[in-house]
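Sequence in, structure out.
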Amino acid sequence: MENNSPHAKCGCGLIAAVFRPRRGTLASSAPNNNNGNDFGKASNTPDTKRLKGESEDAASLGTASSNKAKDSSSHSNSKPIHKPTPIVNQNQQMNHPRETAGGTSKVSPTVGYANHVRRVPKEAVSISGELESMIADHQKSKGSSTLVRASSSNVMLYGNLGNLRQGGNTNSHNVVDYHAKQREENPVANGRYTNHKVEHVDKGSNEESGSLCRALSTRMDPEQLKIMGNEDYKNGRFAEALALYDAAIALDPNKASFRSNRSAALTALGRLLEAVFECREAIRIEPHYHRAHHRLGNLNMRLGETDKALYHCKNAGPEADPDEIAKVKNIQLHLNKCTEARRLGDWNTLIMETNYAISSGADSAPQIFALQAEAFLKLRKHQDADEAMSKGPNFDVDECTKFFGPIGNANLLVTRAQVHLAAGRYEDALDALQRATRLDSNNKEVNKMMRKARAVASARSNGNELFKASKFSEACVAYGEGLEHDPYNSVLLCNRAACRSKLGQFEKAVEDCTAALNLRPSYSKARLRRADCNAKLKRWEASIQDYEILLKETPDDEEVSRALLEAKEQLQK
């Protein structure tokens, strides 16, 4: 059952991320002048630096000074406060059971301020005291007394929470990772990390686990989560960084730097359209956020949206890069030439200009790859069209619709359907066209392609049924009817060649196979059929040539090896 409470959005997985011992964050190994653990200790990093945005963006990291690393190393889970910081001495800790080397002891809750000491009221006990009380209650009910130090200000149940495994092994991942046996034995740990939320496996899960997660999540510092995410980003752990930025956004959704950093992580993971939407959100929150404008300009350039790219590059302020602006203008020039070449039907020029645009920086623009695929289709180079389309990005249809609009995405889907149809993937072609129809029902090209795809798919299906029934003449007619709608469909040509071969019409079968191979040179089934028909026509040299090509592609094919050997023997005779 999914926990939809506002505090549960961070989940236990986020707790594990916060509790990870790592250099320069919560688990600092720096000397402590208090000779003990600092409960509720404020960060040494001045609040004013964070408000100014120092080191706030993941892409600007990597040059941070050692002083900043020291400042961030003492940052705790508590949010900074503008009052004297309580310092708890090791000999003056909270009045709760504490596991020590010599056994369990109790001490009075006293706090040191400057040069005097005063007793803290019970109701003013910090999060550490609250958590220890919850853990102590849990121990009493479960009969367990094993504690482990997770950070400078919290204690965890060993094996129940965080990123520590039993048996002394450590887990380097940022998620809660339980063994199946632990889930059965430990109701408190009977949850799993899914999409940054705590999802309980059964309705009987203990409520203490949710309370503990909420108690922690409401006190996590989003700035500290961002710092930890930046560290992961610098070290190339983009998925981990994304999880931490998600956690920070869940706690403070209106911080532009969190959104911008999340966009950087999404870009590194290849999720460009999501990165665009996140950058837009950052600019909505802070319209003059230069780094977000710069990042959005770069993303739009890669996606082929040159007008938008120029707008955001010019609004990037000191982040603006003249070389990048020149690159966008160069891509824009090539795209204008693409439009003109398409209008004139100059398909070779269109292929050349799309290659220039892609190599100049528009490497993730689906509409450019679609233009190139369309040009190859017009030149009846179906294999090249398929390769061009496969090199382009494979974005989610809904995200494409959100970015390019319903009409733009419908046109992309039509081109994709044409490529599927030419390659014989009829079901994929029909699926793409159905999606395009839903997006733009008035598009004449979509409706025309839908009729064509249905006719070709029906002809192939009918012909296959007749061929299986050994009705080769009828099957040949059925495939021919499909070719009336799509004369250059390589699959229908190859299938008709099979029927003609069965009918002894080897010359016509060779013609169909040759037509199919001109469209798709790597169509091995058509090449094998042509080699066989040429052998039956005693054209040994042509047959040997095809068999040798096939053997290079599939060197372990014994049938091809035998056929090649036989053709060579016949040629010698």
